[in-house]
Input
Amino acid sequence: MVAEHVVTPADLIWPLFICDGDGAEEPLASLPGVSRWSVDRIGAKAKEARALGIPCIALFPNTPPSLRTEDAREAFNADNLICRAVKAAKDAAPEVGVLTDVALDPYTAHGHDGLTDASGYVLNDDTVAVLRDQALVQAEAGADIVAPSDMMDGRVGAIREALEDAGHVNVQIMAYAAKYASAFYGPFRDAVGSRGLLKGDKKTYQMDSANAEEALREVALDLDEGADSVMVKPGLPYLDIVRRVKERFEVPVFAYQVSGEYAMIEAAAAAGAGERDALVLETLMAFKRAGCSGVLTYHAPVAARLLAG
Ligand code: PBG
Output
């Protein structure tokens, strides 16, 4: 009767990994319980989301190695894995929102989110031009929300302008506004196949975990450039950032409970250190209490089933 917050399936965004092939499911060792699915199986996942009351799915590709290049051109191929998966999801369950990641790491030969110079340094402005083309093919395929996760400066404004010019006026931008260079992304990089390729770290473009005021500046820039909502990532270690962003800007704030966080809960449960279902629901409540409108979590289907009783 006195509970101040509530978690419902409507708070959840379900990230799904896509692989090449037909009828394929590829289980991920570092994300127990999570698989990559081929495009022909994504429609069933979208219908599952609908049946569970999950309003949105987020799609990430494992691009075949032969299509990963220095210029990341597969990112703006209108027939790439992501675009085909978006169409499959929207055909199967049009009511379920589809969010696509805008960043080049599944498409570059070196696993960075942007194009690099000869020394391997990530080039901001050259990358923004490619991100814009990438967002456009995703919108064309039917994405409802494009979510730039690359952390280049100026990309939100460039993508907004391109979407407007192309007539995609209703496509939203959820900006990964405060994304930290984090040790919690390891299993994700396995899932999209970039872990073995990545040289160095992402600290020249993702944020320093020491900084909170910088996160507020990053959010302010993305909102000013036209973001409809903002994201903080990773999740639990950065709930202070969620709270500060919510209080300062009063916009929809999302958190990404990332792959390493999922893996930690699964490992704790497997080791008998905690009870998985309770850990999942308590962490989701923590996000709501901190001020999140919603949470991207690989536990989305598990949580939705628990919440349905
Ligand atoms: C890449 C991207 C990453 C994640 C989402 N988009 C990884 C990274 O920046 O290296 C991480 C998600 C997760 O760990 O679950 N642009």
